[in-house]
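Quick start: what a row looks like.
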Amino acid sequence: MTKQHTLFTFQRAFNGEWDVTYTGKDPDIVIPAGLIPEAEQHVSIRLHTENDSVTSISFPKDVAGVWLPTFYADRQLSHFEVDPQNPHLSSSDGVLFGDAGKTLLKVPAMKEGEYRVPEGVEKIGQGAFNNSRLSGIVLP
């Protein structure tokens, strides 16, 4: 099943994930809430875009996970936002977390200076610091 929106195409992928293709040029991507038909089931997505100047990505409450290669070409990314009602993903200071804050998924590439990993983080996702401009990382 494929579902269209003006700037997004949602296509069911394997393992219950959805491929989300963004065709817009706006550097601030806001994934529409409720666009995925089974949104109430909290789905995982794989975001694809040809836009290499994405600066932010906002996730609705129905997105439970994000395929990490989504962020491989994220050199301009400065922050993530997550709907506060999302029980799976969250953001703090623009950084993306999963598993109710227990997994650090991604520090945006544009974040600079020293980053302190918050207390309670048990796992750091593969590629969490790819393309990083950080000068240091402090673990709890």
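That is the whole record. The radius of gyration is 15 Å. The chain is about 0% helix and 45% strand.
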